[in-house]
Amino acid sequence: MRKIICLLFFFAESSILSAQTLHLGGGLSYYNNYLFNKDVEFVGDDSVYVFSGAMGGGLMGAYYFDYGGYYYRKLYGIKTELNFSRIGQSYKVYPGSGAANPEVFYRFRTRLDYLDVPLLFNFCPSHHQGFTLDIGPQISFLRNANIVAEESRIDNPNYPVLSKHDFRAITYSGVIGIGCFYNFTESFAMIGTFRTGYTFSDIRLNNNELIGYSPTKRFWAGAHIMGIYKFNKYYSNRNRGYKYYVKMLKKN
């Protein structure tokens, strides 16, 4: 898996030499996230997930194989990002045996900070005015991990003790996003994307080789908004500007 990731990133960097369109930008994201583990239930008598979200943000660079600069052409490219993201998964724990009392619980949050580096294949059927599709792998580097106590309705709650050393430093995921590209001018644009991802590897480390250990997988889904500046402008003598082709698409 690591060899495949390295080859893809090498391909992305080498594509600069042949790409005709270069976009650079920055943006923000808000995701609902889960740390899936079979020992946690969505509805149960012990511990349950609590809906939780987190913010993120970062930088983007995209290289497109746009020979000729015609707006009506379908567009393909490679996009890389450098995103600082935070996972804030909350849990409710109902102590004791038997049926859970909904008024007796304590709540805590597992907070993980990552540096996410996705490598995404990007497809725009209407040449950067409308629908876009992103899909590809992502490598994530753990920056910090800790437990945050949130609420307790019992005496002496048993909060878990976790640190950065309990988690894998590097994990691998798959990412897919569907969104809309909108041009404000020939140089400035905005992308709004609904993006989701899933981590294939266990994000935790079973250093103690516990019997019955259950792996933990990261899942997230949410909105990603980014502002774009086009460094390589299209050839003005070969097209009539994006507004013209938007009108042509609407007529058809």
Number of helices: 2
Number of strands: 9
CATH-defined architecture: Beta Barrel
- How many domains? The number is 1
Proportion in β-strands = over 45%
The CATH first-level class comes to Mainly Beta
Tell me roughly what share of residues is in helical segments: under 10%
Order of helices and strands: HEEEEEEEEEH
Distance between the termini: 44 Å
Unreliable stretches:
7-19, 235-239
Indicate the structural class. mainly beta
CATH names the topology as: Porin
- What is the strand arrangement across the widest sheet? 1-3-4-5-6-7-8-9
Mean pLDDT: 80
Largest sheet: 8 strands, antiparallel, barrel
Radius of gyration: 22 Å
Q: Name the overall outline.
A: elongated
Explain what you see.
With 252 residues, the chain is mainly beta. It has a single domain (2-251), classed as Porin, CATH 2.40.160. It is built from 2 helices and 9 strands, in the order αβββββββββα. The chain has helices at residues 2-14, 242-251; strands at residues 21-36, 47-50, 53-64, 75-93, 106-124, 130-152, 170-183, 188-199, 217-230. It has an 8-stranded antiparallel barrel. Strand 5 and strand 6 form a beta hairpin. The two termini are 44 Å apart. Residues 7-19 and 235-239 have low confidence and may be disordered.
